[in-house]
Amino acid sequence: MQMTHPEARSDRTPVALGIMFVLVGVAALALRQTGVDVVAVIRDAGWQFFIIIPGLALLAASVVPAPPRGIGFAVAGSIVTTVGLILLYQEANDHFESWAYAWTLIMAAGGAGTFVYGLAAGQRDMVASGLRTAAMAAVLFVAGFWFFETIFETGRAPVDLATWWPVIVIAAGVLLTLGALVTRTSPNRELRGDDAPALEGGLR
What is the mean pLDDT of residues 25-54? Predict the structure, then answer.
């Protein structure tokens, strides 16, 4: 059975993306001829969709290159889409002060994008890295939500920082240490078929 060279597959990426853009443009022009202004529809739905839709397009583009070359699209698409959704929530609820802790969701989105793409591409190192990043971001989000929402509601911190700051420093140190240890002991990526020639050359 004839195998396709990885470089040949990567050369198809710009072509596939170009075709995707052409199709989107043609669809937009066709809708305009029927009296539907895509830009106006998005604007009426919320200006945040000008961020969300490009993010979704990046996610869709992540499946075009041969794995694992689409990881950049997957991570970027996850982050951009999440930023748009955060802004959509904040605009709807007039809660822009939530940026004090909502930024951790951007970090979580990058980790989640890496995790899901790693699962789809069969890359164990991406799965482990993405899961670790998303978990750390989730802990930061919960802690930030608990701390800052209390300040927003009562005007006071939920803990007496002057008394308990050493405990907070210790907890941060423990989390950093555990994160470093988990990173050091994470499983290595499985050897793929296209790695075998390089390995054999090194052994010679």
Answer: 79
